[in-house]
Amino acid sequence: MNNKNNYESNIWKLYLFTFIHHLHFISAVLIPFFIEWGKIPFYQIMILQAIFTASALLFEAPTGVIADKYGRKNSIAIGSLVSAFGFLLYILYPSFYIFALGEIILGLGLALISGADESLFYDTLRQLKREKESKKLLSRLDSLNMLGLLISAPIGGFIAYFLGVRWAFGLMIVPILISFFIILSVKEPKIGRASTRNQHYIDIFRKGISFFANHKILKIMAIDATIVSALMFFVIWVYQYKLQELGVSIAYFGLIHAFLVIAQIIVLNSFSFLEKAIGGKSRYLLLSALVPGVFFIILGASYSPVLAIVSMMVIAGFGLSRKRLYFNYMHKYIPSTKRATVISSVSMIYRLAMTLNNIIMGFLVNWNLQYALYILGATVIFLALLIKIEEKHLKD
To answer: Which of 1, 23, 174, 375 has the fewest other C-beta atoms within 10 Å?
Structure first.
């Protein structure tokens, strides 16, 4: 009974970890931070993001193996400390090259956490024989992620307005260090650990990658979940640029970011309802890509701040929640002993797509923001129609 209580407490500790770890005061003022403090143009901002995603890509599989072999909570704890150091570098001196080093370190920190946190949570559910609740509980986990952003974004906007963007970035170190101590108190589930503890690092890596590469359904899901999601994520970078173009004050950026987060929370907690209302899981996944694609085009054509904000909310709500829904379906096909490595492999595809997207979109936006959004919307619509997953493969 005591072990069961420990694992039950895992769920709440991981909820708390996710919430605190995502108190990102900088999220609402990313573009102003780089432009005002860093003194760099938009295309260099996107190059930095490409460095970040490329670093996370390179570190993804090796750190996934570390999580599988030495424990998910240990990987997450180290990743938290590494991330705190990366943020510290950013506020020391405004230099593109220091920022680049900071992005490499942040990429390592993200890779140590990515896949390990979700694997730890899902295998805790399996330990408790509650995996059938995964869609609801994983969506709740993402909602707490969003809640952290929801609360911190307006605070960060006001911090940046009254104290400066540098303070908004530097204060992010505090919640990350708090989350480090929380994760240390989590109990590692026995499921998925016994058979990997004595295996060689390379052997775990090879088996995990091989499993993913030979699984047709997982590959189709991963392509849709990652490539389309990478395109959708660009709304996080472009919305502040668009707001500045429309003359909106930086003081409101945090509140607007909160609106985007609220839209995601609503959708994340409405998957079952939306799937039934649309008439099936596969049909919902299709529309959840088509609708944001159309609204990217509307955003590009918008000269009204209200219409622009509504478009951003639709894109964020439906577009940024798709990856979570896909990951829920993918978990049903992955054995526990390979979970962190396979999820890391999927994340590698996502990071690669993000890296390429950041470079291309950075230059497109630098050329013309309106046309860049038109191209982005058209690409999302094309991929949504091209990539299809059958209803029977989407298991609850």
So the answer is: 1
The full set of domain ranges for the chain reads 2-186+198-393
Distance, in Å, from the CA atom of 47 to the CA atom of 29, rounded to the nearest integer, reads 18
Confirm if 208 and 342 have CB atoms less than 8 A apart: yes
Token output for 238: 């472009």
Rounded to whole angstroms, what are the CA distances from 86 to 77, 101, 134, 247? 15, 8, 32, 32
Domain 2-186+198-393 maps to which CATH number in 3.40.109.30, 3.90.1640.10, 2.120.10.30, 1.20.1250.20? Answer: 1.20.1250.20
Give the other-Cβ count within 10 Å of 62's Cβ: 17
Which pLDDT score, from 0 to 100, does residue 336 have?
Answer: 67
Q: What is the CA radius of gyration of the chain?
A: 20
What are the Cα distances from residue 196, in Å, to 7, 65, 91, 126? Answer: 20, 9, 40, 17
Helix, strand or coil, per DSSP, at residue 211 = helix
Q: How far apart are CA 259 and CA 306, in angstroms?
A: 12
The residue among 354, 362, 360, 344 whose CA lies nearest residue 54 is 354
The tens digit of pLDDT for each residue in 338-356 reads 666 677 677 777 777 888 8
Cα gap 336→115, rounded to integer Å: 12
305 backbone φψ class: left, alpha, beta (φ>0; ψ -120 to 50): alpha
Dist CA 147 CA 87 (whole Å): 21
279 CB-side CA count, 13 A: 3
User: At which residue do the structure tokens 């639709």 appear?
Assistant: 314
Q: What is the mean pLDDT of the segment spanning 149-167? A: 83
* Interval 273-322: pLDDT, tens: 888 888 887 888 888 889 999 999 999 999 999 999 999 999 999 888 88
